[in-house]
Specification:
By secondary structure, the protein is α/β, with parallel strands linked by helices. Helices cover 27% and strands 17% of the residues. Strand 5, helix 4 (101-118) and strand 6 form a beta-alpha-beta unit. InterPro entries: DUF3326.
């Protein structure tokens, strides 16, 4: 019996794996998608983002999972924006003017295949009026980021697509293919399932810009020349070896991505009192958020971690070293995503996790002064 049928409100969880930080799970080609699938099976609603859901030409539809771009997810977590579910979106495809003719045709064929095979709704495509000029950068920690030289051109193209009827934007930008020894080594490490995705940080910059300025769902797929065959590729990176484009997963995700609703900020959260409260999700409806234990400095966790159950997964190391304890966030540490899924299931069921173990201490009298901090896992 569902919680709704039992007279309980739906259980909502957020899954975050930040992009461009070399996460052991979620730092490659959609390799956190199995985590999302497992979590979606034990919650009523899962909110996550393209870095988790995108697997190049591979994806997995989940009726109760919301595909929310990272900037929009941060605004949602802060209570500034709500998420309104949709039956479908009409997607506008924006192509970088820097993409060569042959590579452009490969992406247009992918878009036509999504229309004919999956039945997705796309407007006619738009080519930017200038090359976007994507540049890749990396930090001393190993995390990656990037810039675009012509953000104005990207926004004009996205606005043209919206004027043509699009309410979600898929961007394909031409990414540089560095041939120096250091860049080639970074790429080789990534293909072997060992380093940081060199493209991820710049991809986030592109989608953040569109969502921040135009407040529509957006995701990005890089345009790159196919790589030479390498029979030693890690399974974690293998989804990016399948063809000429990473666009299919972006179009599938955007087709059902929730729309953003801007509501009144009431204290910390916009709350379900804003606007069409019956359908729109707000931050105060989130029950739990799951993040890597070493990457706890993100905006979504900082907004949600003191009121929802925060779960920090230790077996997903990253290039960062930001613990929940260093930020004063009362997170529950778990060893793996398997344990996180079990903790979510128990939390949703209203079962104290310690009741699932062999250790159950006697109840004690509360001290006259102060209070006891009780770890839900009894650690």
């Amino acid at each position: 019996m569902s919680h709704a049928a039992a007279g309980r409100r739906p259980y909502c969880a957020v899954l975050v794996v930040p992009t461009g930080i070399g996460a052991a799970i979620g730092g490659y080609a959609g390799d956190a998608l199995p985590v999302a699938r497992a979590m979606a099976s034990v919650v009523d609603t899962l909110i996550t983002h393209p870095n988790v859901m995108n697997g190049a030409q591979l994806y997995w539809p989940m009726a109760n999972a919301h595909y929310v771009e990272g900037y929009g997810l941060d605004q949602f977590a802060a209570g500034r924006w709500g998420l309104r579910p949709v039956h479908r979106n009409r997607i506008g495809l924006v192509l970088d003017a820097a993409i060569e003719d042959d590579l452009r045709w490969r992406h247009l064929q992918a878009a036509d295949a999504a229309r004919a095979t999956l039945g997705l709704d796309l407007t006619d495509y738009v080519v930017t009026d200038a090359p976007l000029g994507v540049e890749l950068r990396s930090a001393a920690s190993g995390a990656t980021w990037g810039t675009i030289q012509r953000p104005d051109s990207l926004l004009r193209a996205a606005e043209r697509a919206i004027a043509a009827g699009a309410n979600a934007i898929a961007v394909v930008a031409r990414f540089p293919e560095d041939t120096d020894a250091e860049a080639l080594q970074v790429l080789q490490d990534y293909r072997q399932g060992q380093g940081v995705d060199p493209l991820a940080g710049a991809e986030a910059v592109i989608s953040h810009l569109v969502v921040r300025q135009l407040r529509v769902p957006c995701a990005h797929a890089p345009a790159l020349s196919p790589l030479p065959l390498d029979t030693s590729i890690s399974p974690k990176a293998a989804a990016e070896e399948l063809g000429y484009t990473f666009l299919p997963c972006v179009l599938a995700g955007l087709s059902r991505a929730p729309q953003f609703v801007v509501g009144p900020a009431l204290g910390l959260f916009g709350g379900s009192s804003g606007g069409d409260s019956g359908a729109t999700l707000w931050a105060d409806q989130v029950d739990a958020i799951v993040v890597p234990a070493s990457a706890c400095g993100g905006s979504a966790l900082l907004s949600l971690g003191r009121r929802a159950l925060a779960i920090a997964v230790e077996a997903n190391p990253t290039a960062l070293a930001v613990s929940p304890e260093s930020l004063g966030i009362p997170a529950v540490r778990v060893s793996s995503y398997l344990e996180a899924v079990g903790l979510l299931a128990a939390h949703r069921a209203g079962v104290h996790p310690q009741a699932l173990t062999a250790q159950m201490p006697q109840i004690k009298e509360l001290p006259a002064q102060g209070y006891l901090q009780i770890n839900p896992l009894g650690r």
